[in-house]
Amino acid sequence: MAQPLRVALAGLGTVGAGVIALIDANRDLIARRAGRPIEIVAVSARDRARDRGVDLTRFAWLDDTRALGQRDDVDVVVELIGGADGPALTLAREALGQGKHFVTANKAMIAHHGLALAAEAERLQRAFKYEAAVAGGIPVIKGLREGAAANALTRVYGILNGTCNYILSTMESEGADFAAVLAEAQRLGYAEADPGFDIDGVDAAHKLSILASLAFGSRLDFEAVAITGIRQIIAADIAQAQALGYRVRLVGIAETSPEGSSTAGLFQRVHPCLVPLHHPLAHVAGSLNAVVAEGNFVGRLLFEGRGAGAGPTASAVVADLIDIARGELGPAFAMPVAALEAQPPAPAGERRARAYLRFSVADRPGVLAEIAAAMRDANVSIESLIQRGQTPEGGALVALVTHEGPERCVADALARLDGSPSLLGQPMWMHILDV
Amino acid sequence: MAQPLRVALAGLGTVGAGVIALIDANRDLIARRAGRPIEIVAVSARDRARDRGVDLTRFAWLDDTRALGQRDDVDVVVELIGGADGPALTLAREALGQGKHFVTANKAMIAHHGLALAAEAERLQRAFKYEAAVAGGIPVIKGLREGAAANALTRVYGILNGTCNYILSTMESEGADFAAVLAEAQRLGYAEADPGFDIDGVDAAHKLSILASLAFGSRLDFEAVAITGIRQIIAADIAQAQALGYRVRLVGIAETSPEGSSTAGLFQRVHPCLVPLHHPLAHVAGSLNAVVAEGNFVGRLLFEGRGAGAGPTASAVVADLIDIARGELGPAFAMPVAALEAQPPAPAGERRARAYLRFSVADRPGVLAEIAAAMRDANVSIESLIQRGQTPEGGALVALVTHEGPERCVADALARLDGSPSLLGQPMWMHILDV
Ligand SMILES: NC(=O)c1ccc[n+]([C@@H]2O[C@H](COP(=O)([O-])OP(=O)(O)OC[C@H]3O[C@@H](n4cnc5c(N)ncnc54)[C@H](OP(=O)(O)O)[C@@H]3O)[C@@H](O)[C@H]2O)c1
Ligand SMILES: NC(=O)c1ccc[n+]([C@@H]2O[C@H](COP(=O)([O-])OP(=O)(O)OC[C@H]3O[C@@H](n4cnc5c(N)ncnc54)[C@H](OP(=O)(O)O)[C@@H]3O)[C@@H](O)[C@H]2O)c1
């Protein structure tokens, strides 16, 4: 059998320890599939004394993470520390600079520095791989980069954050409000102590920007993602959605449209959406992830599975290692970085869609007329309207669904209502997923 | 830019013409992704005069398909003729023998000759690829071979035949009987004039045997697949299933279990199943396909999309060509043929499951008691039983669901009832998918 592929592992937390456990459990199978053994030779983390549930005495321990990239006995460096900058980025540069292949699960770093790192890997003819960075165990990077490679993809979207999906599914099944479910999720370990990256949509946006670049051959542009999280969703939103035949999901969606069309450019958004029950994303429950890609020949492809956790994420990291062991090193974003096209962000305003709007209103005559007038003046046509129950602000709840129309009209209507003394708190706007 | 990858195309039917159309439409994108252009240089089919909706004058035409494999200006031969033997197999051997890479969508040929062809490709260090052979446009071969490669997979199953799924979905939505829906499907072109391979489950079995080999690292063993098609399903079966909270799907399922377990070996079966509504396969409608794989670290992965048709199938064929253009040639069944393990077929009898049984019975007293006695004597415990409506044979319909138990007991019960004058026609046995 050929020489083993020698791996250095930086970061021994949830994913790092999972990678060691996986390679231990599936060692022989991996060697048969990869054509050679995959062996960890050196590891690094902050705290040498910490018990990680796996035997580390077999590996060289380095206090200086960066030094992993400098070892002669290492072919691939795997970065599982996290963080857009700092030690992860330092290690990535060091490892590639020293001629190592580089594997990471770090979507924050890729969203911010992915193109530069990919260009460096290309120049040095080394692999830069990150299957675990998007949708955990689901091989969606490979699915877009290779499986759907023959297609012009026009849309990619999905449920990219398991924490948010868990919270929304639980709000739905238990009729509970956001804060209560978040607290419970934190207690159970499904949400971080500092949940901002997840529930504010930033993590999903990191992943979406990566998918968009891969799918469309466009330069990764994280800054252009419009992001709204799930903090403002109340139990009544979910109940209204249910009554109308929808489920609420945090959806990341990216579309590209040809120059000359009214929405030319790259559209990227993470936003809570109403997903109709007949759509497969409506059935993605709990902490699962799912990604849909639409190609001009293949039609709609769906990939679903576990988007996080030690086992699924390690599965994706080791899939990258097997690719490298097999000599499959190709460009990180499916084509050379120089071949990626810079696409201007597409404005949302001309997109035509139906909207869900929810207001918390003072309980007095004339409020509904005021809302209806603002809609009329902004050219928004109302499909259905319901006034039922109380909001957390102590107001009456008004929820409506619009007919299809340009989003800028909805924005205009909300601007007209901005500051109205009839409204308590901010209105909630969710898009209806009609694709 | 590097030299083009030069392709010869054998077979210019649905898929062959689709490949030409795809390469024409997405030429530039493919070159960017593949790192080099992909160019068809020569084609062959039976009838040179036939209009195929694409311009063939650009390509060399060969009347002798086999001669495609002998041309010096060809790097890859793509076989889209079909048939387990005959010209497809002759061409495969010729092409590999002449040092060409080989791509096919031909699941029948792979099910019967895949291991021999893969071994030959390996010996000659050429690619043997077949993404289009299973589940059309869904990149499930790549998903198992690469995406899930770090896992010990224990089960792979799915909806592998779009014709059957279309018929079953339509029976469900229209309450119609099998024969009427099949006739309509044939009129609409969703089913072949000779539909046997599809509706008798053989096509699904071809695909299942390929998936099983890839997933488990076992030698492909098509002969060991137990096959039942959908001809015997009547409208009342679907209605009963619905009333019980299930949908009827033709499911191909393969499992491997370790030596020493009571069901050791490789279990492979294509059979109509009752799929509970909470399972994602219940929501795979119309002509879609879906595949589920369960790994020891990744958990459950689901791939869904179009399993047939010119566009989706061409998408998969060209994905293989892009892999080859990128130099990604690895072993066809994820590991060298010599590393695949021969696994004995696992007996179905010890499998524990719930069963749906439907009888058409003579309308006279004592029949129910006779069925119940047979169940009792065979140690089958009945969970629910319903006697309602008429069967096409003019009998009364009795449908029951058993508690979980070994399948051999159900087989025993049916054997006890075999030949009973109380029964009109064969009983129908469907398995309940409880995974
Ligand atoms: N968890 C998931 O399900 C998941 C899924 C997909 C992607 N990811 C990504 O995978 C990466 C790792 O996530 P995780 O959940 O495994 O994180 P984690 O459990 O917090 O582990 C982080 C590891 O990095 C080490 N570390 C932190 N700062 C370091 C430094 N300055 N120098 C050296 N080592 C340092 C820590 O060392 P100590 O243990 O000694 O403190 C720890 O072992 C992140 O990029 C994350 O976004 C995670
Ligand atoms: N159709 C699908 O959606 C689909 C999906 C997945 C996989 N596949 C597989 O793809 C393959 C092709 O399917 P298809 O639907 O494209 O079949 P098709 O429409 O029947 O086309 C078959 C082609 O092969 C040619 N051919 C037949 N016998 C030949 C011979 N002896 N020598 C040379 N050429 C010969 C025919 O030539 P003429 O046109 O001159 O008669 C025709 O162009 C099959 O293996 C099938 O299982 C098909």
UniProtKB/TrEMBL annotation, chains A, B:
Residues 356-435 form the ACT domain. Keywords: Amino-acid biosynthesis, Methionine biosynthesis, NADP, Oxidoreductase, Threonine biosynthesis. Its EC number is 1.1.1.3. InterPro entries: ACT-like_dom_sf (IPR045865), ACT_dom (IPR002912), Asp/hSer_DH_NAD-bd (IPR005106), HDH (IPR016204), HDH_cat (IPR001342), HDH_CS (IPR019811), NAD(P)-bd_dom_sf (IPR036291). Pathway: Amino-acid biosynthesis; L-threonine biosynthesis; L-threonine from L-aspartate: step 3/5; Amino-acid biosynthesis; L-methionine biosynthesis via de novo pathway; L-homoserine from L-aspartate: step 3/3. It holds the Pfam family Homoserine_dh. Belongs to the homoserine dehydrogenase family. This is Homoserine dehydrogenase.
